[in-house]
Amino acid sequence: MKVDFDTQIFSAQEFGGISRYFASVCETMRGEFSVDARVIAPLHFNAYLKALPQEARVGWHIPRPPMLSSLVRLASMGLGAPVHCARRADILHETYYFPFSTPSLARRRVTTVYDMIHERRPDSFPTHDPVRNWKRKTVARADHVICISEYTRRDLLDIYGLAPERVSVVHLGYDSLQRHLDGEPGESFRRRAFGADEPYILFVGQRGGYKNFSALLKAYAGSAWLRENFRLLCFGGGAFSTAERDELARLGVTARVCQRGGADKELASCYRHAALFVYPSAYEGFGIPPLEAMSLDCPLACSNATSIPEVAGAAAAYFAPHDLDAIRDTLETVLGSAQRMQDLVEQGRVQRERFSWKQCAGKMLEIYRQL
């Protein structure tokens, strides 16, 4: 079987979850299933694609042009057309929804829908955001649609009214961060992070909008016990904005909440030495961070919204994302019980085995073969 993944996401992201997904699946299909899978990206600036073996990719890695990403994407699509047509793949898998179709003589065309947040939460995006229209056109021309969670599939069927047999669910895999640990003791890491060996609650990623960090922050600030006994560490998402610093000051927790960033090595240490990882998002199409936390035996407390319980299963303590009392009570209950935290870790070791790139790639290949 010949499988082509097109250039779209690879000429749009240097790093990012979607490009990591396709690079990982392509590599796994070749290595685990001996499938002739390739990414056709004549011009790209993606780090994951650059790291793939040469035989898994067609194209050249270039430095990311700061203001010319759209031109690079257009050029890459145009240059890729002769390659796609000459190769005559069995499957062309479109990697995003940009408003131009990849010319190809592939026998079948597939796309992946990651979430329906542009449709469900339009307030989170600019008024004239074009992704909703682009997505609808991409889905319309696909012979089959893959969704990354059952929740996303239900959303897609509800909003688009597609025939159910046109849409399948394939859960994502994840990359364990275990290999990035360098053996630094927890005490050393906490002193490096805070200047003191204090336990901490961890939040990872962007903080705005539906990511719902503001609710976590208010719940934390509203608990004298949490404030006195735990720091709150935010990893990634950029430095605190002026508005965020003002909110920290208003809540009286400036000295107890901090932000840091870094590569996977630093992120792995954050997970490994945290007392609890909290995922308060109000909407997710899947959600990789809970799996990353499980891979490092970090207990979880998560929102019960959208696809999150589908991913975290019995390995998380749950709360309603906009109920501050529920968030506070859940954190206090879990952190106040060593047995509860250990139970969550044990459940996480079971739950994480249900997700891997091999399982993801294998299920995608089953769909390709049926097509």
Question: In the residues, how many domains can be counted?
Answer: 2
Low-confidence runs of at least 5 consecutive residues: none
**Quaternary structure classification:** single chain
Estimate what percentage of residues fall within beta strands: 15-25%
Strands across the major sheet, in which order? 3-2-1-4-5-6-7
Question: How do the helices and strands line up, and which of them pair or pack?
Answer:
Layout: E1 2-5, H1 17-33, E2 36-44, H2 47-51, E3 57-61, H3 69-87, E4 91-94, E5 108-113, H4 117-120, H5 131-141, E6 144-147, H6 150-160, E7 167-169, H7 186-194, E8 200-204, H8 213-221, H9 224-229, E9 231-235, H10 242-251, E10 257-260, H11 264-273, E11 276-279, H12 289-295, E12 300-303, H13 308-312, E13 316-319, H14 324-335, H15 338-351, H16 357-370
Parallel strand pairs: 1-2, 1-4, 2-3, 4-5, 5-6, 6-7, 8-9, 8-11, 9-10, 11-12, 12-13
Helix pairs in contact: 1-16, 7-11, 8-14
